[in-house]
Amino acid sequence: MALIGALLAGCQSSGTVRPLNTSQTVPAESALALPPPGGPSIVSVVEHKRGNGTEQMISLYTSSSVSGQNFLKVQFLGASGANPGTGSAPYSMISENGIIREAFRAVPGVQMTRSMTYLQNSYGPFSYASGQSGSGDSCIYGWQQIRSSRSAHTQARNFGMIQVRLRLCDARATERQLLAIMYGYTLVGTLDGEIWNPFGSALNTDPALGRPGNPIYPDDNGNTSTPMSFGYEPGVPEIRSPVVRPRSLQPKAEEEPVQLPQPTGPRVPSPDGANGLTQPDMSVLPSNEQTAPGSAAALGPTVPSPECIGDAATTAACRK
Questions:
Q1: Whole domain around residue 99: which residue ranges?
Q2: What stretches of the chain show up as alpha helix (H) in DSSP?
């Protein structure tokens, strides 16, 4: 009878197809982490629900010849039983060997070198590996684990954890420009309940706030040891006298050039015979008037003086 009941139940099933996992594409507005203003822009967001939290693969704009897609991956872990039946992600710390394997898988074909410099952004310490492809593309793989201190765990709260991974390759950006994304990204999601708070307790305010005897000045960056000078002296207005220029120094209006009258009478030919005129025949001149070229006699016939006209032409001066 039991077997017959099972067969009947199987025949009554609707045969509806259901996905094997809970991964789905969500709009960019639902991303749990955002790149800094100015990019890279978000291409798509794939969300996967887990039994102890939520994971998102945020694909970013890619301009590189290196294989693979730029991404910002975030995991919010700690909400036990949030999505039952979907499996739980490992709740473990970052290991040195494991993170290097992640970097090589995310950036295939590029020799990645881990940075040994201690770095810290608004969420705490982080690190990264960088490399350069054969075509000159710069690549980084950054990682960060956001978790409250162990001392806060003794208070039965602050047990949540956020894992962040960033893969960036760009053909035009430098390593320093790509690293700026690790400083500028913003987490816009959180875990419900104070017990799963991954950031720990909020920092206490400065004890000097509101306490008498501790002045805070507007330009000392919180340094209350530098006193501010008091007193007010109105400034003397600067008197400027108008500049008077002498008439001789004042700029004159541009004058049109004066047209000179054209000379009248027969044209005198130039020495080189320009304008188609020929030089006078030097052979017809008297022998005492044939001088070197360029002299007054070589330029044309000599005009006699008025004193050598008429009877005065017999003087010795006129015979020269």
A1: 21-196
A2: 2-11, 96-106, 150-153, 175-184
**Which of 101, 179, 102, 105 is CA-nearest to residue 139?**
179
Phi, psi for residue 216 in degrees, rounded to 5: -120, 120
pTM over 0.90, yes/no? no
> What token pair was written down for 55?
């994971």
Closest CA to 76 of 163, 185, 167, 149: 163
**Beta partners for 48?**
55
C-alpha 110/C-alpha 168 separation (Å) is 12
pLDDT more than 90, % of the chain: 37
- Token code pair at residue 53: 């939290």
Beta strands (DSSP E) in the chain are: 24-26, 33-34, 42-50, 53-60, 71-77, 113-114, 119-121, 124-132, 138-147, 161-170, 186-187
d(CA 198, CA 75): 12
Determine the Cα–Cα distance for residues 195 and 191; give it in Å rounded to an integer.
9
Q: State which amino acid sits at residue 171.
A: A
**CB 112, CB 130: distance < 8 Å:** yes
Inside any domain, residue 293: no
Domain-embedded: residue 186: yes
In a domain, 210, yes or no: no
Kindly state whether residue 43 falls inside one of the protein's structural domains: yes
Distance CA 15, CA 38 (A): 48
Please say whether the beta carbons of 112 and 103 come within 8 A: yes
Structure token pair of residue 176: 């320093």
**From CA 168, how far away is CA 180, in angstroms rounded?**
11
Which pLDDT tens digit goes with each residue over 129-166?
999 999 999 999 999 999 876 655 556 666 788 999 99
Q: Is the per-residue pLDDT at 124 higher than 80?
A: yes
Total domain count, the chain: 1
d(CA 45, CA 58): 5
- Show Cβ contacts of residue 34 under 8 Å, excluding neighbours closer than 6 positions: 42, 185, 186, 188
Give the pLDDT score at 186. Answer: 95
